[in-house]
Design goal:
Helix content is 31%, strand content 23%. With 164 residues, the protein is α/β, with parallel strands linked by helices. The protein has a single domain, classed as Glutaredoxin.
Length: 164
């Protein structure tokens, strides 16, 4: 049995696993450094540059001013390299960190592993997933899709982040 099958789902009310990942400048970023003064949205996405991932992250980019006014930070997370994420982030002028889970440790901790991507069998990527984490590292919202073509409900996320 793989470690993914043994992973426990992270549910609302659970403590979010802390992690340290490299950003597009290959600098370490820790979840626990972001959530100290507000909410953090973890936006796991399958592949930098893919059409649905681009739409999703551009939606977050375009709503960040509203969210930051409520002291909400966004962290995009994919298994792509920091180099691929950098090209993706610069091309779309993302105004939040895109982190590289190239060893797939964090997607396993959060149990959001998609075992194959399209015709790329056994190529593990992140399921499109959203976790909202409060300042005590508690999960206050969770959404995970088994279909990489489905986007999250942005209005639902805004509602959750505006009530905290």
């Amino acid at each position: 049995m793989s470690s993914v099958q043994n992973s426990k789902d992270i549910e609302v009310g659970d403590t979010a696993p802390d992690f340290e990942l490299l950003d597009t400048n290959q600098e370490s970023q820790k979840l626990s450094d972001y959530n100290k003064k507000g909410l953090t949205i973890l936006a796991f996405f399958p592949a930098a540059g893919s059409p649905v991932c681009t739409v999703e992250l551009c939606n977050f980019r375009d709503s960040i001013n509203d969210l930051e006014g409520k002291n909400v930070k966004i962290l995009g997370i994919s298994v792509d390299s920091p180099f691929a994420n950098k090209v993706f982030a610069e091309h779309h002028k993302f105004n939040f960190p895109i982190l590289s889970d190239y060893d797939r440790d964090v997607i396993e901790k959060y149990n959001v592993v998609m075992p194959s991507l399209g015709k790329l069998k056994d190529f593990k990527v992140a399921k499109r997933s959203i976790f909202v984490i409060d300042d005590k590292l508690k999960v206050i919202y969770k959404w995970v899709s088994d279909n990489p073509l489905v986007e999250p409900n942005y209005e639902e996320i805004k509602k959750v982040t505006s009530t905290k």
